[in-house]
Specification:
Blueprint: H1 2-26, H2 29-36, H3 40-46, H4 50-74, H5 79-96, H6 99-110, H7 112-121, H8 126-138, H9 147-163, H10 165-172, H11 177-199
Length: 201
């Protein structure tokens, strides 16, 4: 059982790399098998088709994203605590799994409805998150802001440094990869401070 799980994990990791580099349409099962260090027959034993393998990767990516959001919302934290935890954990997730932004961008360009459907199929209740923001505004702890704008603002501040890594590293940081690592480590505090200064009364 352990060996089977190890092989499947290797396939999943290999598929992530290939799908990110080539996209769903450009990826080939042979490329994934080569990346995983297995033969194509064994790959087909675990995942009969490329589409089934892609669905597996797709569901794992969105599970990771929504787990972070659910953990922050379900804990019944204050709005300020939610803000700090979500930003910290979301950036930590992107540091651990930097392939997520590119993977999502590929799919937004290719099949946006798939992403919408995946989000609708999660157990996450967006109204609970919206209510948390609206209540903070009603209590006059933050400036009034439509929840959808606040969430997209926060996600943009967290995501862009990973999407634009080559530009930030190559231009803003003069190609210094160590400076980029430091920059990413500083990012949660910078985003939290920026959002709080913009929001809190």
């Amino acid at each position: 059982m352990v060996k089977k799980q190890n092989t499947e994990d290797k396939i999943v990791e290999a598929a992530k790399k290939v799908f990110i580099q080539k996209g769903m349409d450009g990826a080939r099962m042979q490329q994934i098998a080569d990346e995983a260090g297995i033969n194509k027959a064994l790959l087909h034993y675990y995942f009969r088709t490329k589409n089934k393998l892609f669905e597996k990767i797709f569901s794992l990516v969105f599970r990771d994203i929504f787990e972070v959001l659910e953990m922050a919302v379900m804990k019944e934290l204050s709005f300020e605590q939610f803000l700090e935890q979500f930003i910290t954990e979301y950036i930590a997730l992107l540091k651990r799994k930097p392939y997520i932004p590119q993977f999502v961008i590929h799919e937004i360009n290719r099949k946006p409805q798939r992403i919408v459907d995946q989000m609708k199929n999660t157990k996450f209740d967006k109204q609970q998150l919206f209510a948390l923001i609206e209540q903070a505004a009603e209590d006059k702890r933050i400036r009034p802001i439509p929840p959808v704008h606040l969430i997209t603002n926060i996600l943009s501040l967290c995501l862009f440094p990973f999407v634009a890594k080559p530009i930030i590293t190559g231009f803003a940081l003069d190609g210094d990869k160590e400076k980029y690592k430091t920059y990413i480590d500083e990012r949660p505090e910078q985003v939290i401070t920026f959002v709080k200064q913009a929001l809190f009364l």
